[in-house]
Amino acid sequence: MIHIKNLIISSTMTSWYLFIICFVLSAMTTTSSERRGPFFTVEPESHVEFMNSSGAAIACSSQGNPSPQITWIKKDGTPVSDVTGLRHVRPDGTLVFQPFRAEEYRQDVHSAIYRCVARNVVGAIASKDVNVRAAINQYYETQVYDVFVTKGNTAVLKCHIPSFVKEYVSVMAWMRDDGSIIHAENGAGGRYTVFPTGELYIRMADPLTDGMRKYYCQTKHRISGAIKQSSSSGRIIIRDAHSTFPPRVIDRRANLIVKEGSTVKLPCAAEGYPIPQIHWLKLEKSQAVRLSKNQRFVELGGTLIIRRAEPEDSGKYICYVNNSVADERVDTELLVSAPLRANISPKQVKAEEGESVIFNCSIKGHPVHSVTWVKNLNPVVANSRIRYLSRDLLQVAPIVREDKGMYQCFVTNDFGMAQGTAELSLGGKYLS
């Protein structure tokens, strides 16, 4: 009885051993046959800004088979190492910037470009550039000064922001000493317009309604969220015209960059007597043409407002100012940018040696300044087998063993970067 029981136990154990061995062998076979290169499941944003008092954590994760290893590199390709008390890479691949004192600021750490890299036995891929900027929490004041204007013309008040915080601080609203508030988001009607750069236009300046008030600007720090009122106020000093004089443009922009879908305000303020008329034109095929007024294009007292801006709206706009004495014109170059996106097709190619493949980098966004191709982080160099059919098309023919790996196209402009990823492996045939 004991002998039989032992046999039963022995048989049971043998069955379990066989089951485990078969399972492991099956898993190993499956793992080997289903190898896949890395692809990002969480890719960092192009721009990361943080206050020195708060720090930041930039997540990056990927999948693949086997599971990819996450590392970080600098712009020059060198690995990112820990800097005690300032920068640390977690085991999960998160890049951490710790809170620091102002005197601990390091440009090579806190104002630098980083890339996340995912790597396994199939190949390696890199994220788009991550521009990291740390802002120091420091005291600042904004100022508003008096301005002079001839009665009936447009007065332009400016909010003067210190240069060391100007890139982070924007004007939210203008306030008068009588409690009136003119908000930036709706200050585009009637006699008032508030521009994204902070200027306040007051059209048809009148000594009784405008000349008796003090004006303050209210600003917000976009990272810290701190809201401040200007430490000084400005007044509009309105003069009577005693004789005619030609128009003079007192405020304009030479260049303006906006995002697709936003509302654009092209400024143009002029002073003269008689009060000058202002019209807008656009340069089309070297010829200045009047703008057709519709729901998207509106002229408001010298300001051209473009709603739901499109990349096609980019170009040179002309502000034409005239009165009975003379005329003047100034130009504004408008660029409407659209977010970059890149995608490679086919995304996965399994081919035999001697065959060929064409990778197509499909690009969306505006403008596009450059397109570059890399394989396993190294630039793709054209030769007798590898040819650039165009900026967006890469041909590999005939395929050899050294061609397998991860291919990427990187698309860039002055505002950001996008990347697409594809995998080339050798074996049975499929495209996806």
Automatic annotation (TrEMBL):
InterPro entries: Ig-like_dom (IPR007110), Ig-like_dom_sf (IPR036179), Ig-like_fold (IPR013783), Ig_I-set (IPR013098), Ig_sub (IPR003599), Ig_sub2 (IPR003598). Keywords: Disulfide bond, Glycoprotein, Immunoglobulin domain, Membrane, Repeat, Transmembrane, Transmembrane helix. Residues 38-131, 149-233, 247-337, 339-425 form the Ig-like domain. The keyword Repeat applies. The chain crosses the membrane at residues 7-28. GO terms for biological process: cell-cell adhesion. One of its GO terms (cellular component) is membrane. It comes from the Eukaryota. It is found in: Membrane. PANTHER family: FIBRONECTIN TYPE-III DOMAIN-CONTAINING PROTEIN, PROTEIN SIDEKICK. This is Ig-like domain-containing protein. It comes from Larinioides sclopetarius.
